[in-house]
Amino acid sequence: MTFSISARCARTGRFGIAVSSSSPCVAARCAHARAGVGAVATQNITDPTLGPRGLDLMASGLSAPEALARLRAEGAHIDYRQIALVDAAGRTAGFSGARTLGTHIIAEGPGVVAAGNLLSSTRVPQAMVDAFAAALDDPLGDRLLAAMKAALDAGGEEGPVHSVGMLIVDEVAWPVADLRIDWHETDPIGALAELWELWKPQMDAYVTRALDPSTAPSYGVPGDE
């Protein structure tokens, strides 16, 4: 039903998540990240409260494994949940409850963790981690998308995916990228890649406009002289 990648870029300190599913609007409930703190993916039979709670725990000083232990101890119906975390030091942790659906597995690498359920193959999460690691010098969004494409190449879900999202946080209090394809009949990941190519060259300008409009570049809209 879902596969995701949660990661920290060691070069920039940014955190990002990409997640795809056969269900609609997957990123709205599964992707959580906070600048300077980490990222949490909560999926399978999703409890969206686990994302903010995991971030709060890591913000309090707990490592990703320590935060996961607390989530497992405190979370309701934890056997139904699949959770993946990465913290500010790039430490990772993952959990698949006993009631996780279908073929499910988690793969971890330096600063990156991928998780999936109802997969066509156990190879999918490792393919995602490998693709992310292979694109070390690329922007974080490019690396996350490379991982999602690798997931499809490795077989993806048992059935077709229809929604996808990518969330990236940096030094400001809001996401610098929060891109979603909430429903697509044939190729949501391809549609997200097109949206990222549109957003990527504008992303930093939108941050500048928020922080100091007087130094921002032209808005690039009709009537802006």
Low-confidence stretches: none
Identify the strand order in the major beta sheet. 7-8-1-2-9-10
Structural class comes to alpha+beta
Mean pLDDT across all residues, rounded?
A: 96
Q: Could you state the oligomeric state of the chains shown? A: single chain
The termini sit apart by: 48 Å
What fraction strand?
25-35%
Biggest sheet features: 6 strands, antiparallel
Query: What string gives the helices and strands in order?
Result: EEHEEHHEEEEHHEEHH
Helix content: 25-40%
> Rg, please?
17 Å
Q: DSSP helix count?
A: 7
Can you count the beta strands?
A: 10
Please state the overall shape, judged from the principal axes of the Cα atoms.
globular
Supply the key terms:
225 residues; alpha+beta; six-stranded antiparallel sheet; four-stranded antiparallel sheet; 7 helices; 32% helix; 27% strand
Question: How would you portray this structure in words?
Answer:
This protein is of the alpha+beta class. The chain is built from seven helices and ten strands. It has helices at 26-30, 50-59, 64-74, 124-134, 140-153, 188-199, 203-211; strands spanning 2-8, 15-21, 31-34, 38-44, 81-87, 92-96, 105-109, 112-117, 163-169, 177-181. A six-stranded antiparallel beta sheet has the order 7-8-1-2-9-10. A four-stranded antiparallel beta sheet has the order 3-4-5-6. α4 packs antiparallel against α5 and α5 (140-153) runs antiparallel to α6 (188-199). The longest helix has 14 residues, at 140-153. The termini are far apart.
